[in-house]
Amino acid sequence: MMHAFLLSFSLAMAALQAPPADAAPALGFPVECVVGQSCLIQKLVDHDPGPGRRDYHCGLLTTNGHDGIDIRLRTMADMRTGFTVVAAAPGTVLRIRDGEADVSVAERTAPNGKDAGNAVVIDHGNDWQTQYSHLRQGSIGVRPGQPLATGDRIGLIGLSGNTEFPHLHFTVRYRGEAVDPFVGAGALPRCSADSRASGLWTPSAVPMLGYQPAAVITGGLSAAVPAKAVTERDPPPAPVSAQEPLILWVDAIGAREGDRQTFTIIGPKGQIVHEQQSVIADGGLSWFAYSGKRAPATGWPSGRYVGRYALRRGDAVVARIESNGLIK
Ligand SMILES: [Zn+2]
After folding, report:
1. Domain shared by 125 and 233, yes or no
2. 202 and 101 within one domain
3. Does residue 280 share a domain with residue 186?
4. Are residues 244 and 289 in the same domain?
5. Percent of the chain scored above 90 by pLDDT?
6. Phi, psi (5° rounding) for residue 253?
7. Torsion angle of C-alpha atoms 238, 239, 245, 246, degrees rounded to 10
8. Bridge partners of residue 277, in order along the sequence
9. How far is the CA of 297 from the centre of ligand 1 (A)?
10. What are the two backbone dihedrals, phi and then psi, of residue 222, each rounded to the nearest 5 degrees?
11. Mean pLDDT, the chain, as a whole number?
């Protein structure tokens, strides 16, 4: 019986993986990073035709009219290290733009209209194209007319164009219209309980692309409230002195109204030196929060401190971080 079941299951899988009638390209993941580790998916395609927002999973990980997938790095330091953007499918380079500086849009005096920043467009034939935006200045290593295979390097994740954090905005188009790669052309999102929507992704990309309703981008223990601008938040200032405040901060994605967050700081002997819980009244796609305490009059006891942050939705922890700090 078990064998019969396995056989019919694998036949069903084969049917699902057959190429669709519109010859859509099978898409590999366009960045050499591991989602949930070295990079995060911050925004998906908006499926709400009105002023609202709704991602393919009927969640809120999008903004009104967002036509692509935002794959972000955690820190500016990661951007400087360099994360490679690759062709998602075989094709030919249609056009490129380079020369735009890696400057947060929040720091610009005036928008220059080049929202995509440094970008590459690849033609995959049969009216399918992919676009890779916000690339790092000077990183594009392909030229128009060049043939590419899946996984060929095209540039690095950057901060050019209309963006406040280092990320790749990845757009898939069919006949000029944006297509959600988690859904496919002409299909409707199913809001499926199965969080691994395959859409146009290759079978090897799918296991990494499970739907994550929330995530911690970065955070840690520090002696001061970190800068509000994302680009100025790293490296986090570490607590150095027993006389300074001890603050646990977090930069997260997908916090929602009604979520509960807990900040806990644990001292060298395992004792809780600070704890704060609150209910989030108004979350959003980006969530920056912190909680901490002044040093006691006698100073913090020296040793290793642990900061723990948890974001809860109902009974489930949807995002968390644990971070160490040392007070001498
Ligand atoms: Zn985007």
Report:
1. no
2. yes
3. no
4. yes
5. 70
6. -120, 140
7. 80
8. 262
9. 48
10. -150, 170
11. 88
CA of 280 to the centre of ligand 1 (A): 25
What was the pLDDT predicted at 224?
85
My answer on whether 193 and 226 are in the same domain is no
Count: domains in the chain: 2
Give the H or E element holding residue 79.
helix 76-81
Q: How confident is the model at residue 226 (pLDDT cuts 50, 70, 90)?
A: confident
3-class secondary-structure state, position 80: helix
Provide the domain limits for residue 80: 20-208
CA–centroid distance, residue 182 to ligand 1 (Å): 15
Indicate which CATH number applies to the domain containing 265: 2.60.40
**Boundary of a domain, candidates 146, 173, 208:** 208
Mean pLDDT along residues 155-164: 94
- 210 C-alpha vs ligand 1 centroid, how far in Å? 19
Residue 47 in contact with residue 55, Cβ under 8 Å? yes
Statement to judge: residues 299 and 191 lie in one domain: no
Q: Say whether pLDDT at 235 is over 80.
A: no
- Could you tell me the pTM of the whole model? 0.87
CA-CA-CA-CA torsion sign (57, 60, 63, 65): positive
Closest CA to 134 of 106, 109, 115: 115
Distance 166 CA to ligand 1 centre (A): 11
Distance CA 106, CA 185 (A): 34
Confidence at 239, pLDDT banded by 50, 70, 90: low
Are 240 and 190 found together in one domain?
A: no
pLDDT, tens only, 185-217: 887 787 765 656 678 999 999 888 989 989 999
Q: Of 177, 208, 239, which residue sits at a domain end?
A: 208
